Amino acid sequence: MWGTSEPAVQRVGSRISAQTASARKSARNFSLAAERAALIRALKSAETNWFAMCSDFRDAGEHWSNIKMECRERKISAGKWAAENAPLSKRWLDRYAEFARRWAEFLESREWSQSLSYAPERRPGLCGCFDLMDAKARFDTYSKSRTRSYRDDTGMGSVLPNPRTERRSDGSPIRLTATATLLHGDVTAMMREHIADGSIDLAIADVPYFLRRSPATTAADLYIEHNGMKPMFNEQWDRYDSIEQYEVFCTGWIDEAMRCLNHEGSLFIFGVYHNAGLINRVCQMRGYLIVNEIVWVQRNGRPNVATRRLQASHQSILWVAKDSSRYRFNYRLCKRTAYDDWLSNRNQQLRDVWDIPANGHENKSRHPSPKPLAVMERILDVAGHPGGLLLDLFSGSGTAAVAASKWGMRSVSIEREADYVHMIRERIATEVRRG
User: Fold this and answer.
1) Which of 213-222, 285-294, 356-365 has the lowest mean pLDDT?
2) What CATH superfamily is the domain 165-434?
């Protein structure tokens, strides 16, 4: 049009487009560089402010510890002093003092979190600081549990024992992994011999149910066998001569378990309608606090073959505390966890009714009454202690020990039946190999 050929116009247009694209790219690079610098400044400022907040928490705890010491010398009630002079209750001030005592642990946890390729969730406030320390304790214990070798109590290096060749029934502790131990023998006797006073953070008891079934084969048993269904529960170790004998048995092991628990510890006891009332009575007669009765709903419960009663679709779990004023309850953890349960919504209080299917394909053990991993893990969420010690009574197929390993607790399992002892050892060895 202006005396310029069409190709020349195209070349000029291309140069202009290239220059425009280059300018846009430079502007974009400049913008990204500026935003990156601003991002780093903001993160450093947030980290500095967060750490300064944590330091203030430590200082508050140290000051409160000094005040409590002075109150003791003057024979003044620290709780009364806090009510009259402090903006927080004594219970919360004691948490600040605990944080001050654990300051070195907090610094180690903070350094650990900064070294990870992912960052554990940091929440504001004092509880967020405890959450970070708990996360590291659980991570360390879980990592240790996946170790495929360890040194036993004799100091000799060894690998996981072979359950088919090594059979120990003298009651000596059997090391399964670096964090899991198994005791083969009577529950009460093993606790009395091997577990120290106040050394346990959480205990779980899948106790014999005292079903009182006749050892004779019934028509219902024949029907089940003919149709290839799982036989009804009818084990020799579940039989007792009388209700009085069963009550004496329960009193013995419950008293021993409560002795082993520390003041923040809890005991969770599985039961059905045959024995739950008896165990409730024993606990109340002995003066132990029953915090909750949890109803574990089983959508896939066994149908009633005899058609003479309602289909059993739940079990009870009694939550019994060692100390009525100091027992551990991980309220915030349970509230923020998203469970696969229509009764338990995230960011709402966890209910005392749990909708968890009965054990399905996850456990291929030969135990007649295995518990699902999900119910054990939820018990750990409720009252577990990161890095602490779980006591698994009547261990059965070893589900509680597996849950403890995954959750971040050490465990001591006790089982009397030799077949189940070898079952536990095989299962734990399999879990370690998977790690």
Assistant:
1) 213-222
2) Vaccinia Virus protein VP39 (3.40.50.150)
